[in-house]
Amino acid sequence: MKQARSQHPTSRIEIPLALFYLFYFSLVGVYVIFMPKVLLSFEYSKAEVGVIYAAAPFMRFLIPFVFRRFIRLDHKVFLVSLVLTLFGSLIFLGTIENFWLYLAANLLFGAAMGISLPYVETIALHRLSKNRYGKVRLYGSIGFTAIALWLGKVLTIPYEALYYLLTMAFLTLLSGAMIAHLDRDTEMETTEDNRSFTLLLYPWFWLSVFLMQVGFGGFYSFFTIYETAHGVSLEITSWLWSFGVICEIVMLYFQGPLLQRNLLNLLKAATLITAIRWLILYLYPDSLPLTFASQSLHAVSFALYHTAAISYVFTLYTQKKLAQQFFLGIAFGLGGSAGALLAGQIYGGSMFLIEAIITLFAFAALFGHSRRKVQHTAGVHAHAL
């Protein structure tokens, strides 16, 4: 009976998945692209912006440890997380003028966001082929691009960004409810209990994904501020964001054949290219053609890297949802939090040089992981014999 439920046509869930990605990443677009600038208009310092943008990712890091011991991520918990995301967006309206209250609201918002995406990513990887996953996931990139272009043109007063944030959170809740309804009877097959999950099995891999996102800290938190400080208008900056995501969409659509190759080698290549991307922004901050060129690399440093990484994690552990929670928690959570805090302290002419160096360390860590994985595989085979 359970098997029959898990095999209903994937087409039924593709549309809700596409809508979820569309609205979820529209929500992320408002939060990442426009809210830092909004905070400056409320007289937040750059260091305070860094702290705020460390809060939500840090909660993403903590949440998987709670789920490892006490909570099972199912459709009911998923729905609660979407309601809390909406509630967090709502209380932003009343707290944004007070740093400490707004920080507390961001902690709630980050915790809720850290639950919903791993649930959806696991369902998508479980139900869809690698080729279909990219073509469904690209709706998230479309949403991110659309909101960037639209708000870059129409945003005039700070509170408008909060209204858009609230609207996207509500639409994310609706699309998530459809996914939960369709997937409520499906259970992922696992052979081990969540309590046996350990990060120590592949420490170099987790170090690499952490450092990779630390290197993204300045981009996510300060790219809009960085570009406008170098004389680029807010509208052109929104086009820079959008161009990067358009390149991401193209990669997501055509990446299927690449994902049939060695996933670990793809991660190495994407990490190295990301270091080159940050170096371009450091060397040529005033050159629009080269800034657009650096944004074109988002196709590799985000789209290909992210899909290869979550697919790779999916093969490493039997605890699929928990592994995705830890990936997003360590990468976008702990890494994003540390990256935002660091960027708030080092913001200036050398910020992207420092981030390029950090990303090179992430590249080096993957070679340590390769050696560790070979040793682990050899040990498993020896034990089996």
Can you put this structure into words, describing what you see?
By secondary structure, the chain is mostly helical. It has one domain: MFS general substrate transporter like domains (Growth Hormone, Chain: A). It is built from 15 helices and no strands. Helix 5 runs antiparallel to helix 14 (320-346), helix 8 crosses helix 14 and helix 10 packs parallel to helix 12. The protein is globular, with a radius of gyration of 20 Å.
Tell me the layout of helices and strands.
Blueprint: H1 2-6, H2 11-41, H3 46-69, H4 75-95, H5 99-127, H6 130-154, H7 158-183, H8 203-214, H9 217-229, H10 234-254, H11 263-283, H12 288-296, H13 298-316, H14 320-346, H15 351-384
List keywords for this structure.
about 375 residues, mainly alpha, Growth Hormone, Chain: A, 15 helices, disordered N terminus, disordered C terminus
Classify the secondary structure makeup into a structural class: mainly alpha
Please provide the ordered H/E string of secondary-structure elements.
HHHHHHHHHHHHHHH
Task: Please give the CATH architecture.
Answer: Up-down Bundle
- Looking at how many chains there are and whether they match, the oligomeric state comes to single chain
**Could you name the CATH homologous superfamily?**
MFS general substrate transporter like domains
Number of helical elements:
15
Q: What share of the residues lie within helices?
A: over 70%
β-sheet strand percentage: under 5%
CATH class: Mainly Alpha
- How many domains, in number, for the residues? 1
Q: Determine Rg (CA atoms, Å).
A: 20 Å
The CATH topology assignment is Growth Hormone, Chain: A
Q: Based on Cα principal axes, name the global outline.
A: globular
The separation of the N and C termini measures: 36 Å
Count the beta strands.
Answer: 0
Mean of pLDDT: 84
The major sheet is characterized as: none
